[in-house]
Amino acid sequence: MSPPPPSSSSASSLVLAALAVVTLTTLLFSSPASAAAGPQPRPFKKIYAFGDSFTDTGNTHSESGPSGYGHVSSPPYGVTFFHRPTNRYSDGRLVIDFVAQSLSLPFLPPYRNISSSSAAAANGVNFAVAGSTAINHEFFVRNNMSLDVTPQSLLTQLLWFSKYMESHEGCRGKACRGALQDALVWVGEIGVNDYAYTIGSNVSADTIQKLTITTVTAFLESLLKRGAKYMVVQGLPVSGCLPLTMYLAPENDRDDIGCVKSVNDRTHAHNAALLAKISDLRKRFPDSVIVYADYWNAYHLVMKTPAKYGFKEPFKACCGTGDPYHYNPFATCGTPSTDLCPRPSEYINWDGVHLTEAMYKVIADTFLNGRYSQPPFSYLLGKKQRGG
Predict the structure, then answer these.
(1) I need a surface site. Which of 279, 306, 327, 362 has the fewest CB within 10 A?
(2) Keywords for this entry (predicted)?
(3) Catalytic residue at 168?
């Protein structure tokens, strides 16, 4: 006799916890828009990016980084575009890479690869860290919820940013306003790991939501006070559609697109709270343009009609092993027991947790050219071109 399925709430916590564990232990549009449009003046000179593994371009690969991230440095990561591992958690480019290309800028170097005298940061820096939380790491340690693998939080990224601005731009705090006038600040999704740590604790998901939203809001406010004038903030994706989530959740926990309902409901509620705070920040900082990139609905749209976007496998991972999702948490992409799908561009998911370049391309396009940015990204560009 099989045991009864877990409740929706406990299933959601279990799935999100495992999502963080695997993220921490497995790790790692057509042509670029700039090429399609031809040579044009760059609207921005730099991009500063923040977030987690969906945005990280290499900050977890360092001598001081966690050992559990080694697989992202192994083939077949990077196979599609770079043809080698670049410590991105995908087969190729990420959303932030497509953003850079659309603005005729080079790919952003990870902060940890930049020396104090390096010229590599001439066009911006990526501060995102895979496995990062929004809430400070010490909170999870105090509540015995820490996996003790990625101590870097959003506060860490802000401290890195401050250190970078002082060493490379020669400014501190509000004095950096001039240095930020020609920069796009891109805040990638962050928060899934915060919810994940609630498993086995007395801290509720509602508490985590409140603390996460408060922390992210304070982070955004800090950047705005320093002079950030053009900002894009991504919401959380439909994490309930990841192969890992599908693998772990009970079959009776499904929504209208066949994904895990409890997890998608939680991330949807998180995004609603985040958007409300962004609306408040817009009123407090009327001279800044703050765009909300609706990751949840953009991803949901693709899952509703995957064939429309060229995807034949909406649920299976391209790199992995096992049925029914070509995913096994004990045999992750980059290890000898896994295999690679013949055409990654036909898959939405790359390794069970992260997305393929093809999916990132579609998502980036909905942010930059579609209707899943509020206000539209074109509005931000227009303001920049008029305001200089």
Answers:
(1) 279
(2) Glycoprotein, Hydrolase, Signal
(3) no
